[in-house]
Structure formats: C-alpha cells, structure tokens
Amino acid sequence: MSVLAPRHDVRAGLFYPMAIPADIIATITSLRDTTHDTRVFLLHPHADNYAFLPGQHCLVDAGLQRPRPFSFTTSPLQGPGFELAIKREGVLTDRMFALKAGDLVHVSRPLSSRLSLQPNDGELAMVAGGTGVTPFMSIIRDAALRHLSTTLWLLCAHRTAADIIFRTELEELSRAHPALTVVFTLTRERPADWPGEHGRIDAAMLHRQFPDWLRPRWLLCGPPLMVVALRRELLAAGVPAGRVAV
Ligand SMILES: Cc1cc2nc3c(=O)[nH]c(=O)nc-3n(C[C@H](O)[C@H](O)[C@H](O)COP(=O)(O)OP(=O)(O)OC[C@H]3O[C@@H](n4cnc5c(N)ncnc54)[C@H](O)[C@@H]3O)c2cc1C
C-alpha cells in the first residue's frame, strides 16, 4: 500500500514533500490507557531491521488510506517493537481506539526528526505541549537506559492534571535519575497544592524554569503557535538558531 501522507499536521508545520509508504504490517501486541483520551499501543512491525532513533516518528494507517504521524515513545533499547501514545483526535485515531491486541495496522519506516539527543549535548531543554511530549519520552527513556550524564529538563503543558500523558512514568524517571527534571504546567485548572506551574508556557515561565537560556540546546514540540512563539523568544534572547530544534 502506498498512500499520500498529510502535507501538514497539527505540529509545527511538518511538511511531507512526497508519498511515504505506510506498507509495513505491524501487530498490536498490547494497549493501555495513559489518560482518558490517550492510549499507548505496543506495536511489533513485521520487518527486518526496523531501526528507529529516539525523537523519530512513523506514519500509521489502519485500513483508511490516511496515514498519520506518531512519535515513538520507547527507546530502541526497549525492543522488540515500539510504543506509540495516540490521542483520540479524529478519523484515524478513532479507528485506532477501536482496535485490540492482535489486530494489524500499517506503519511506515521511521522518519527523521530534528528532535534528538546529540552525543555532545551537555544539557537539553525540552518543551512540550500536549502530545508534543511523545518524542521526548523516547529521548528520556533512552538516555536513562544508557545512563547518559546529560542534564535533561522537560517542561510540559497540559490542560488539566487528568490530561498529563505518561505522568507516572515521568515522575518515576525523574525520581530515579537526578539529571532529569520534569515540570508540568496546567493551563485549564489550578488544583490545590499543585507542585508544578500554572498557565501557558511563555517567556516568563521559561525564565523561571531555565534561568540560563544560553546553556542548553532546546527542543520544542507541540501546537505550532506555541512552538513558533517560544522559538522567537529564544532567538530574540540570543540563543543561536542552531541550538533550537522544532
Ligand atoms: C511529527 C508528528 C508526530 C506526532 N506524534 C503524535 C503522537 O505521538 N501522538 C499523538 O497523539 N499525536 C501525534 N501527532 C499528531 C497526530 O498526527 C494527529 O493527531 C493525527 O494526525 C490525527 O489524525 P486523525 O485522522 O485522527 O484526525 P483528523 O480527522 O485528521 O483530525 C485532526 C484534527 O483536525 C480536527 N478536524 C478534523 N476535521 C475538522 C473539520 N472539518 N473542522 C475543524 N476541525 C477538524 C480534529 O478535531 C482534530 O483535532 C503527531 C504529529 C506530527 C506531525
């Protein structure tokens, strides 16, 4: 099956210039809910050498001829197979939510991404909105499994505490790895004794969470308006464009 991928998506204007085949059969090995509307699928691709890197994504189709992109959330070291965390948003994701363990879907080969941990990164600041956390989950899990000394910061915006994807896993990882700091901000509620931030991510919040903007390399992922605005703030403050990946 060779089908046209969407040319634009809800993320930062990602653009697919050519047909990308989602022609690899993958078995859904297991499923679990991470929030009320986001489900984690463990997929086993029927392909040799299905090698992905943390931060990459693939296209998924479920018999609708409308493949959609989803980021790997596991480390390649956690194979066989890989996990995707899929939020119920529309036609394809609705169909995904109707599937069960043992069902088959189609996936593409892994697709490259600028969101990655580089060998010379001393410090990485990851800023996510909603499902934008998914590529960072893979990067964090991979860094933890490889015992990397890189300082990792994750600032993640969700509407409510109930919307936080991978909350338990991220809290456990940050407890186990002193080099990892995870902060959640809630945009639609302010629970009593909430330990994190409140409100949308803006320059003031970035200053509170990352006092020295010039030190880390930045990875931004989420709604295009958020990503574009934050990137503009970082560049205006003197962060070199090459140190901000979206
Ligand atoms: C690189 C990349 C990685 C991604 N990784 C992930 C991930 O890991 N997890 C994840 O959950 N998502 C991820 N996404 C987003 C995901 O690809 C989209 O949520 C997915 O394409 C939705 O497909 P769908 O067919 O279910 O939704 P669609 O039916 O295509 O709908 C998409 C959006 O448009 C809205 N919409 C649809 N039709 C209309 C209309 N007529 N009028 C107004 N609004 C409309 C829907 O409400 C929905 O919000 C990623 C996106 C990119 C670009």
Summarize this, please?
The protein is α/β, with parallel strands linked by helices.
Describe it:
There is one protein chain. The model is unreliable at 1-10 (pLDDT under 50). The protein has 2 domains: 24-107, Translation factors (Elongation Factor Tu (Ef-tu), domain 3, Beta Barrel), CATH 2.40.30.10; 123-245, Nucleotide-binding domain of ferredoxin-NADP reductase (FNR) module (Rossmann fold, 3-Layer(aba) Sandwich). It has helices at residues 91-97, 134-145, 167-176, 203-209, 224-236, and strands spanning 24-33, 38-45, 57-61, 68-71, 82-87, 104-107, 123-129, 151-158, 180-186, 197-198, 217-221, 244-245. The two termini are 30 Å apart. It has a 6-stranded antiparallel sheet with strand order 4-3-6-1-2-5. It has a 6-stranded parallel sheet with strand order 10-9-8-7-11-12, sandwiched between helices. Helices cover 20% and strands 28% of the residues. The chain is α/β, with parallel strands linked by helices and 246 residues long. It is globular and about 45 Å long. A hairpin with a 4-residue loop joins β1 and β2 (38-45). It is built from 5 helices and 12 strands. Residues 9-11, 14, 57, 66, 68-71, 84-87, 89-93, 131, 134 line the site of flavin-adenine dinucleotide.
Characteristics of this structure?
about 250 residues, alpha/beta, Elongation Factor Tu (Ef-tu), domain 3, Rossmann fold, six-stranded antiparallel beta sheet, 5 helices, 12 strands, about 20% helix, about 30% strand, globular, binds flavin-adenine dinucleotide
